[in-house]
Specification:
heterodimer; A: mainly alpha; globular; B: 467 residues; alpha+beta
Chain lengths: 315, 467
């Protein structure tokens, strides 16, 4: 396969996943903002969404940190590299650059999503009916993954697509968890109270994992359990452990297919064992935010190593 | 004006079944079909980019539902005539880059060839595989009457539009399954397979295995990008850009996820000037440095060969019938548009006396610049133009203004005749191949003769009826 094709497939799936994550982040912000204020005059939900999205630096410092402005920035701002519309633009541009490497169903899923998104009526939907818009974005992600899953050949191209998906998803889950860190809890006494628990379950909801969590842990919605589910539980489809497992598997497939191993294979296994050998007590005592930041750094390095091994640009 | 569908209110035979069907269906069904077709085109993303005009960078080419139909008898003549031209043009190309016999014989003037911008000294003496320079010849044909076909021009470089031929058919078959069931229409789907066979057959001398073939595109911003990716896809070969290829020790390689892979045949859709910055334009970032060296040494085949453009020049065109006689010893099956060469005294006299009826063109001009359209010009313009011709007669040719045939077409006011032309695609390799079909282009504006897609022209499916 052409290196450029591999690169396009990898980034195409990353961008689709990222668009979906932007929507999930907004879902968290939206739900948290529905709760009574923790402290009067200190509504920080939207600020934390911005911080966790990684795009805070591009946000106009004079703009209010209200839902409408932040959502508009995360959905439609063309200068924001990771805005939802840009993610779909880049994904489609990647797809267009290698139409021959993807199926018609995949192309149509991307093409339709972007055409809809460019419609002015979408702008109104995003403004007045944010939950509907969020659902729409999640649906586009599901449609694309479904089209991919049911139509594309299980060759190396498939592996590059999946590597992109899981590298991005791991990063995204780490960001979702980090929103919780950014939401200021001014009094230690507040930790573990109703608002705090509500915020934690919001993380689960945004990760579409509320019911899955319930099946595994019943009704124990403690931060400890929720973090465990999204970080260390390999059965949870958005957990860091699961993403990492998928990444190692697809790298293994490539190694078998090509008869070639690279340093990235070792790095991926290291990351996976870090996640299988940690426990939540350790992570909490070292600081959840610090753990997540460290993980995102490793994940970024892994992405670069994949690009390096297969001769394409990683960033 | 010859109407393809009817003459004196009599429906012409090949259109009979179509007209019956249209009448039985009624305008509402047809309008609905038209909308469906547009949605399909948009969905598949068959677009045509036009630079520097603003608006939608990926706009749709207007697609007209009413097909253009040829009888098998008409097609047999076109088929033979186009193949004959493609053979002669290739013989000419080989000749001008070798012994130039046709020039020595005094048939084609040396200046026309050697002072031509498309003449490429870098390929003099090169023997490409099977001595073919132009592997895909697009011949533009117009019709003025039941038996009157004229070749308007030959495209020996990289003629585009074949993806429309294939996609138009795909969509027509989805829209009108009944018609296809009841009529016997020759299929066009074999084109990609024929193209692949042709490309395989021109593997370079040094290639001792099943050749590795790629389609080289300037990239997604190119107006014909859809076609490039479509053909690569249909043939099951890689679609590459210049950055994906590099030269190493007399061979061309592409960058892959497993490391470098050797490339044997390049179907390039990049102009000569851009394919090798070491040989042609040094500022080109689209090409592959060193490609021409490998080509010269027989390490790679390039389709179409650099320098092939010298055969599709406006002035060279006038000599194609002579080429057919000279190289093939045959009489031309398809006529050129009658052309007066002002360099010949008798022709000059005629042209000057009939300026008001003729279209006069500069030999080296292109894109309609520096033309005199007689019937649309004033006496003053004609007088001024006559002075230019007299100053340098050899620089001008003249042709009659043809009355192009028209084909019924959906327009805002309903169905009305619009002018059409026709471009079949001839493949030249170990064999000369022609798919039964081609691209019919249609001028969407009333009275307009401009069918170019860059100027709002549309396309139609072309049906060749089988016996």
């Amino acid at each position: 396969m052409l290196s450029r094709t591999a690169e396009n497939l990898f980034w195409l799936s990353r961008y689709v996943e990222r668009a979906e994550n932007m929507a999930r982040l907004m879902e968290m912000g939206y739900r948290m903002a529905l709760m009574p204020a923790v402290v009067d005059g200190n509504r920080s939900e939207w600020e934390s969404v911005l911080s966790a999205s990684g795009c805070a630096a591009g946000y106009d410092p004079d703009a209010p940190l209200r839902q409408e402005e932040v959502a508009n920035f995360l959905i439609f701002n063309r200068d924001n590299h990771s805005s939802i519309i840009n993610c779909f633009e880049y994904a489609r541009a990647n797809a267009r650059a290698m139409r021959t490497a993807i199926t018609a169903e995949m192309w149509e899923a991307l093409n339709n999503a972007l055409m809809e998104l460019r419609r002015p009526s979408m702008h109104n939907l995003a403004k007045n009916e944010l939950p509907e818009f969020i659902d729409w974005v999640k649906k586009q992600g599901a449609l694309f993954r479904g089209a991919t899953d049911s139509t594309i050949l299980r060759n190396d191209g498939y592996d590059f697509i999946r590597l992109g998906t899981f590298i991005e998803r791991a990063d995204n889950t780490a960001r979702l968890l980090d929103v919780k860190y950014y939401v200021l809890l001014p009094e230690t006494s507040m930790v573990g109270d109703g608002v705090d628990n509500y915020q934690w379950t919001t993380v689960l909801r945004a990760a579409s994992s509320l019911r899955a969590f319930h099946w595994v842990y019943r009704d124990d919605y403690s931060p400890h359990r929720i973090a465990h589910f999204l970080i260390l539980n390999p059965f949870s489809p958005r957990s860091l452990a699961h993403c990492s497992e998928q990444i190692t598997q697809h790298l293994e497939r490539l190694a078998r297919h090509y008869g070639q191993r690279h340093s990235v294979h070792r790095q991926a296994v290291e990351m996976y064992s870090l996640l299988t050998q940690s426990d939540m007590d350790e992570i909490f005592s070292g600081g959840l935010h610090e753990f997540l930041t460290d993980f995102q750094g490793r994940n970024r390095i892994l992405s670069l190593a994949i690009a390096d091994a297969y001769h394409f640009g990683g960033q | 004006m010859f109407n393809e569908m009817s003459v004196d209110d009599q429906i012409r035979e090949p259109y009979r079944a179509l007209v019956d069907w249209m009448e039985a269906s009624g305008p509402e069904v047809l309008e609905q079909k038209r909308l469906e077709a547009e949605t399909l085109f948009r969905k598949i993303g068959i677009t045509f980019a036009v630079y520097g005009e603003g608006g939608d960078p990926e706009r749709l080419i207007p697609f007209d539902l009413i097909p253009r139909i040829f009888t098998s008898q008409e097609w047999r003549k076109l088929d033979r005539g186009v193949k004959q031209r493609a053979r002669a043009l290739n013989a000419f190309l080989y000749d001008v880059y070798h012994n130039a016999e046709i020039i020595k014989a005094g048939i084609v003037p040396a200046d026309l060839v050697f002072r031509n911008d498309a003449f490429e000294p870098a390929v003099i003496g090169i023997d490409p595989p099977r001595n073919v320079y132009s592997h895909i010849v697009g011949v533009d044909i117009v019709r003025t009457g039941p038996d009157d076909f004229y070749v308007l021009e030959d495209n020996c470089r990289t003629p585009s539009g074949v993806s429309y031929m294939l996609e138009n058919r795909e969509i027509m078959m989805r829209m009108f399954p009944d018609l296809f069931k009841s009529l016997r229409i020759e299929p066009v789907e074999s084109y990609p397979d024929m193209l692949l066979k042709t490309l395989k057959s021109i593997a370079p001398r040094k290639c001792d295995r099943d050749p590795n073939i790629v389609v080289l595109t300037p990239g997604a911003m190119n107006s014909a990008y859809y076609e490039h990716s479509f053909l690569a896809d249909q043939m099951g070969v890689e679609l590459v850009e210049g950055q994906d290829l590099f030269v190493h020790e007399d061979r061309v390689f592409m960058r892959t996820t497993r490391g470098p892979a050797q490339v044997d045949v390049i179907y390039r859709r990049i102009d000569d000037a851009y394919i090798d910055p070491l040989c042609f334009r040094s500022d080109s970032v689209l090409g592959i440095p060193g490609l021409m060296n490998v080509y010269r040494s027989g390490g790679v085949a390039i389709c179409s060969a650099p320098g092939a453009g010298v055969a599709d020049d406006k002035a060279v065109y006038t000599y194609v019938p002579d080429m057919i006689r000279f190289y093939l010893g045959q009489e031309p099956i398809l006529n050129n548009v009658p052309t007066w060469k002002c360099g010949k005294p008798n022709d000059l006299k005629y042209v000057l006396e009939h300026l008001g009826e003729l279209v006069v063109k500069e030999v080296h001009g292109s894109g309609g610049y520096g033309m005199l359209v007689g019937p649309a010009s004033t006496k003053e313009e004609q007088a001024a133009y006559a002075k230019r011709i007299e100053a340098d007669p050899g620089d001008f040719i003249a042709q009659p203004t043809l009355s192009l045939s028209a084909c019924p077409t959906f327009v805002e006011s309903g169905v009305a005749p619009r002018h059409v032309d026709f471009r079949p695609f001839c493949l030249v390799g170990d064999d000369v191949r022609l798919t039964p079909g081609g691209l019919t282009r249609v001028a969407m504006r009333e009275g307009s003769l401009v069918v170019n897609s860059s100027q709002g022209g549309g396309v139609k499916d072309t049906w060749i009826m089988s016996d």
